[in-house]
Amino acid sequence: MIKDLDFDRIAILGPGLLGGSLALAVRRFSPGVKVHLWGRRTTVIDEIRRREIADVASTDLSEVLTGADLVILATPVGIMAELCHAIRKTGGTAANCIVSDVGSVKAPVMAGFAEIFTDSGFTWLGSHPMAGSEKMGIEHARSDLFEGAPCVITPSEDSTDLPAAKKLELFWQSIGMRTCLMGANEHDRLVARISHLPHLLASAMVEVAFCEGEKAASLAGTGFIDSTRIAAGAPEMWTEILMENRIAVASELKRLQMKLGETLAFLEEMDEEGMMRFLSAAKERRDSIKAKEKE
Prior knowledge:
The chain has an eight-stranded mixed β-sheet, sandwiched between helices. The radius of gyration is 21 Å and the shape is elongated. The protein starts with 8 loop residues before the first strand and ends with a helix. The chain contains eleven helices and eight strands. It folds into two domains: 174 residues, NAD(P)-binding Rossmann-like Domain (Rossmann fold), CATH 3.40.50; 108 residues, 6-phosphogluconate dehydrogenase C-terminal like domain (6-phosphogluconate dehydrogenase C-terminal fold, Orthogonal Bundle), CATH 1.10.3660.10.
């Protein structure tokens, strides 16, 4: 566990599952760091105060930003630009404050950061902590949500502020995450393949299961339930994610169509050897992921 961080006050904007879990994780692993949490609804802020999730919880953005040397946007991507303008206008943060986010699409976020924060005194870097749940809301927040999960950090293309990137890496590592740096476009292409496409596939599998009513779905065991769990995610959030990353997702969806076409041919042509090769290669690759999970 990393105890010494270069941040004294962290402002988290957005008290949902990720924002609330992040606040709990910081308070657990770095109790000397002050956590400020902002939300729009007073009922949610009251719940945060009741559970003592943050040192400061408020609907007043200026109160939450005061003295912050790290600001993390834990909101839907669609409202981040509005918040970034408000951050710049409100001010009150510490000098050399870093602004980051937890969005699962990075190219549009980084473009927005550059447009709004250039010549502002803020340093901006994208973050994508790849942890979460199909459950939403502050009531499901927990301090161990991020442990062992990867986090991608995306500096701006012309950024030479490697010390800021290192500070942000150490922050995410301090709550138990594995970090790496990559460009925003590469991130979006890879995440389309291993996160966004699986959500579409899980949703499609559910629709097929119910194509003739509930009879087939009533027979579902753990295999079907495990492989379709992510289809229970919030449709509003996932629609936004898929639309924001639509070019990369569409490319990977076409790749999946080709692969499904190959397996269909194995069945239609009674090609047992081809099917065996396909399943064996998939098993070997999936087993390699299991090996990494145990490291």
